[in-house]
């Protein structure tokens, strides 16, 4: 691989190092400021009463209030939205991992009939336009009696999370040398015991990263989650449409609910940050 | 080398069953709709390929298609280079790296309709910081609900804000996987930063860039929730992308037959594009370079 480094650029004349770090740091700081600006604005708004929001532009809450948050934490129709979302997202993440792990192992270790086609087919399931597929989904889950359950949403989200999980895990698994499998077999480990006690700990990072992506895509998806539920498993994103009432938009409440949807995800990324930094090997591509 | 073992299908079977359950049954239903004229639950007439012919002739649909294609092209051209640049500039280790990763990932973790809401608020001239700044400080006449150009730019900037972090995260992870020895070799050769990027970093990012490109293409071509919340497809048809047009047809007018025919064609277009990207990039790396 090192042959790709051009030899022609060798010039041993000493060059003074331009402080490249400064421009780079400035770029990062500006990027983060632009990134955080809309979020800052939403947090700012969530701490104001509607009177102040509509009264004029203020850069920090002059009439600081936590009423918007209090409403959400005391009204079951609000906080149950978060609980419902967390339940089906959690179920989906666990199911995606359990289903994808053996398949990713198969893709990374074996040639089998139709492997490449199967892989592309899995990927195509992310591409179905939701608008028309919603009605068949609704009919399907109603016919099997799962409509308005957490399980229905978790199962439906497998459609796009399982292919992604297989894709990411397969990359990590391909980075583990095959000799380890063979040595374990020689040492008399059965396959399940080898897989659980030796192989899985080796790809811890991969499992962390995969769990993060599954959590993320399930947490942010709205159309399917809203279509497959009505009351008992209604996700928070659907509850948020309630803030449009006869008296106009309740902007403060909407902003507070929005702020609260960021927190679970931020916690998850905090826990997997080191695994992400370790990198994906992504062997297939 | 990989060993050939067809019993590996047993390991793949759970994936096939779980995905097929949610993929194939609805797909069959949609195909069923696409060849019928549906008046009610029990009143339907077989019409053959009529909806497909209509769909291909629909000029409004063609407008939405080219609008969406332009949008996806803009998204890819802006987000991929920006994402690579940010990933290169982020600190590599220490608490700064952890903090950067958490901050970068924030927009990705916000439900899509909330993203729409954030920008709907942010862009308003009366209560939003962005709209206020453009109108009162810069003196522009910015209004995303009236002006087609402003609406387009709002949706585009929102998408860049929302999805560039995905490209950053993938590239960042890819960059961390490059062995230190490569950089040492480059230092011995006194390679300039550009040469390091072009001959070491970029080739090693091929895999993650493929994922980023495919995911961004699919999602921008299917974009629905965010522009729907912000502009509702307007003003006029300015931000009516394919999915928005499709759901107007399916939900608004309850024209299930044409909508189903349309979504099958739509599905096919996306698959063709992704297949082209997929094989193109796979071959790019396995070409004469080796």
TrEMBL record, chain B:
GO terms (BP aspect): transmembrane transport
> Where is it mainly found?
membrane
Q: Could you name the Gene Ontology cellular component terms for this entry?
A: plasma membrane
The source's superkingdom equals Bacteria
Sorted alphabetically, which InterPro entries does this protein's record hold? MetI-like, MetI-like_sf, Sugar_ABC_transporter
Keywords, ordered alphabetically: Membrane, Transmembrane, Transmembrane helix, Transport
Q: How does it sit in the membrane?
A: Multi-pass membrane protein
Q: Please state where this protein is localized.
A: Cell membrane; Membrane
* Chain segments annotated as transmembrane: 9-31, 69-90, 102-122, 160-178, 207-225, 264-284
Q: Signal as a keyword?
A: no
Q: Which Gene3D superfamilies match?
A: MetI-like
Q: Name all ABC transmembrane type-1 domain ranges.
A: 65-277
Q: Name one Pfam family in it.
A: BPD_transp_1
Q: PANTHER family from the xrefs?
A: GLUCOSE IMPORT SYSTEM PERMEASE PROTEIN GLCT (PTHR43759:SF1), TREHALOSE TRANSPORT SYSTEM PERMEASE PROTEIN SUGA (PTHR43759)
Q: Which family does it belong to?
A: Belongs to the binding-protein-dependent transport system permease family.
Q: Under what name is this protein listed?
A: Glycerol ABC transporter, permease protein GlpP
Originating species: uncultured Truepera sp
């Amino acid at each position: 691989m090192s042959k790709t480094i051009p030899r022609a650029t060798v010039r041993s004349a000493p060059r003074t190092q331009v402080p490249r770090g400064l421009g780079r740091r400035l770029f990062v700081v500006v990027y983060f400021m632009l990134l955080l600006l809309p979020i800052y604005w939403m947090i700012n708004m969530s701490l104001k009463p509607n009177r102040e929001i509509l009264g004029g532009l203020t850069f920090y809450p002059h009439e600081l209030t936590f009423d918007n948050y209090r409403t959400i934490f005391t009204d079951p129709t609000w906080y149950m939205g978060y609980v419902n979302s967390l339940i089906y997202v959690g179920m989906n993440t666990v199911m995606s991992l359990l289903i994808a792990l053996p398949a990713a192992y198969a893709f990374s270790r074996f040639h089998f009939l139709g492997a490449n086609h199967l892989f592309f087919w899995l990927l195509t399931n992310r591409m179905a336009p939701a608008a028309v597929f919603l009605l068949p989904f609704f009919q399907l889950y109603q016919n099997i009696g799962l409509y308005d359950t957490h399980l229905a949403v978790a199962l439906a989200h497998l459609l796009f999370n399982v292919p992604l999980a297989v894709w990411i895990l397969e990359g990590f698994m391909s980075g583990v040398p095959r000799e380890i499998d063979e040595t374990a077999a020689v040492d008399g480990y059965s396959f399940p015991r080898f897989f659980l006690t030796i192989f899985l700990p080796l790809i811890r990072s991969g499992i962390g990263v995969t769990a993060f992506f599954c959590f993320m895509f399930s947490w942010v998806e709205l159309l399917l989650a809203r279509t497959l539920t009505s009351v008992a498993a209604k996700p928070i994103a659907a509850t948020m449409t309630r803030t449009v009432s006869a008296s106009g938009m309740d902007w403060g409440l909407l902003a507070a609910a929005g702020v609260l949807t960021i927190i679970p995800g931020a916690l998850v990324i905090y826990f997997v940050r080191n695994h992400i930094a370790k990198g994906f090997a992504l062997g297939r591509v | 080398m990989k060993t050939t073992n067809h019993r590996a299908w047993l390991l793949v079977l759970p994936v096939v069953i779980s995905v097929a359950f949610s993929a194939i049954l609805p797909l069959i239903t949609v195909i069923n709709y696409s060849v019928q004229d549906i008046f009610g639950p029990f009143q339907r007439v077989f019409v053959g390929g009529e909806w497909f012919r209509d769909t291909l002739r629909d000029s409004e649909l063609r407008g939405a298609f080219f609008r969406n294609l332009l949008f996806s092209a803009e998204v890819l051209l802006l987000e991929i280079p920006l994402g690579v640049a940010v990933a290169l500039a982020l600190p590599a280790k220490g608490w700064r790296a952890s903090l950067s990763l958490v901050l970068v990932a924030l927009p990705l973790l916000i439900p899509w309709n909330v993203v729409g809401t954030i920008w709907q608020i942010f862009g308003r001239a009366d209560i939003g910081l962005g709209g206020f700044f453009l109108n009162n400080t810069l003196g522009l006449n910015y209004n995303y609900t009236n002006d087609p150009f402003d609406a387009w730019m709002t949706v585009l900037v929102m998408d860049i804000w929302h999805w560039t972090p995905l490209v950053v995260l993938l590239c960042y992870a890819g960059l961390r996987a490059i062995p230190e020895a490569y950089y040492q070799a480059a230092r011995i050769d006194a390679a300039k930063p550009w040469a390091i990027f072009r001959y070491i970093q970029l080739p090693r990012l091929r895999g993650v860039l493929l994922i980023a490109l495919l995911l961004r293409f699919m999602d921008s071509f299917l974009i629905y929730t965010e522009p729907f919340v912000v502009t509702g497809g307007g003003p006029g048809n300015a931000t009516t992308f394919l999915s928005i047009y499709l759901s107007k047809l399916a939900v608004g007018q309850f024209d299930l037959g044409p909508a189903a025919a349309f979504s099958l064609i739509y599905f096919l277009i996306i698959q063709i594009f992704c297949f082209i990207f997929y094989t193109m990039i796979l071959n790019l790396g396995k070409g004469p370079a080796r």
